[in-house]
Design a protein that fits this description.
The chain has one domain: Thiol Ester Dehydrase, Chain A, CATH 3.10.129.10. It is elongated. It is built from two helices and six strands; from the N terminus they run βαβββββα. Strands 1, 2, 3, 4, 5 and 6 form a six-stranded antiparallel sheet that branches. A hairpin with a 3-residue loop joins β4 and β5. The protein is of the alpha+beta class.
């Protein structure tokens, strides 16, 4: 799994228990999944269709640096399925896992449309 994004846990990211608010983390994950999909499918019009069970394994505290890792598990006709893991960058302790996020490629009218992709492409290979 490649870890694409790092976030620094700040006071405004905390819940009343002093740990990272789950909703904030899920927003970061959804944004990263969308950005990853935009780059892979070369289309800025994508949406999150489905997210499976979210498994919180540990927490993060103020000052921690977390990493969001994403890997593609499947290319559909108009979708891409991702697996996500978030971990503490320093300790490598897993904070959360999501086995399946389905992102859908859209046309200019907001309808699902085939993307024609079958494997992960890296930007460096496109240049």
């Amino acid at each position: 799994m490649r870890f694409h994004t790092r976030k620094w846990v700040k006071p405004e990211d905390l819940n009343p228990n002093g740990t990272l608010f789950g909703g904030r983390l899920l927003a970061w994950i959804d944004e990263e999944a969308a950005l990853y999909t935009v780059v892979q499918l070369e289309n800025s019009q994508v949406v999150t269709k489905f997210i499976t069970e979210i498994d919180f394994k540990s927490s993060a505290r103020e000052g921690d640096i977390i990493e969001i890792g994403i890997e593609v598990t499947k290319f559909g006709t108009a979708s891409i399925t991702l697996r996500v893991e978030v971990r503490n960058m320093m300790t490598k302790t897993t904070i959360i896992t999501i086995e399946k996020i389905v992102m859908v490629n859209l046309d200019s009218k907001g309808n699902p449309t085939p993307h024609g992709k079958t494997s992960v492409e890296y930007v460096k290979d496109r240049l």
